Amino acid sequence: MSNKIVITEPVPAIGCGGSFKTAESVFPLLSPKIEGSWSWSSEFRWKQPSDSNPSVTKLEFMSAVIHFITSFEEAKTYVGDLLAGRGPGECPPNHVGSHDYSKHARCILFGRGYTEEQVREIHSLHGGKGVDGPVAWIAGDPTVGPPPNPGPGGYGPGFAEKAAESVKEALSKWIENGAQSEEIIWY
Questions:
Q1: Span between the terminal Cα atoms of the chain, in Å
Q2: How far apart are CA 184 and CA 187, in angstroms?
Q3: Residues 143-168: pLDDT tens digits?
Q4: 137 with 185: CB under 8 angstroms?
Q5: 130 contacts: CB under 8 Å, gap ≥ 6
Q6: What are the helix (H) ranges across the chain?
Q7: Could you tell me the CA-to-CA distances from 155 to 15, 63, 182 in Å, in that order?
Q8: Which of 82, 146, 148, 149 has its CA 20 to 30 A from that of 42?
Q9: Which pairs count as long-range contacts for 82-88, CB under 8 Å and 24+ apart, including other chains?
Q10: pLDDT tens digits for 47-88?
């Protein structure tokens, strides 16, 4: 029986996207959703199940995003500071995100407003800089492209739920594969 990584608390994330409207609709849906047995830890840590409980545990969850960046130039400049636990530097916080910089990011989420080239450039600049270990790099599949500009009612029924579920599935894939890779996971 193989052991899988168990994450005992939500995964702090940095969000990069092109639209506040999308972030406002998707990020609240990335709240903890836990399935299976799990152990609680008073501090953020990654744990293996014990030999006495080798069952496979599936956890699918995200924390509220710590900081949201809408500009490619700001992402290139400030993602490294956020990953290193230095806060956003001179990148002004906006109304999206918890702004709790005491929690170090273990995940970077890119919406489909970022191109494949932009995601790869930010990844090459800041990969391997996570304070607490490897970081999940999760990005919208460039072959799908962003949805059209939203009207007053948003992107339509189910858009936010589908996007949030896709992100959670990508994070689960990273966790199930050992939570050690910094390869980009496309959703």
A1: 29
A2: 10
A3: 876 666 655 555 666 788 888 889 98
A4: yes
A5: 83, 104, 105, 106
A6: 20-26, 72-83, 116-126, 159-176
A7: 19, 23, 31
A8: 82
A9: 82/14, 83/14, 83/108, 83/126, 83/129, 83/130, 83/131, 83/135, 84/129, 84/131, 85/131
A10: 434 444 443 333 434 556 889 999 999 999 999 999 988 888
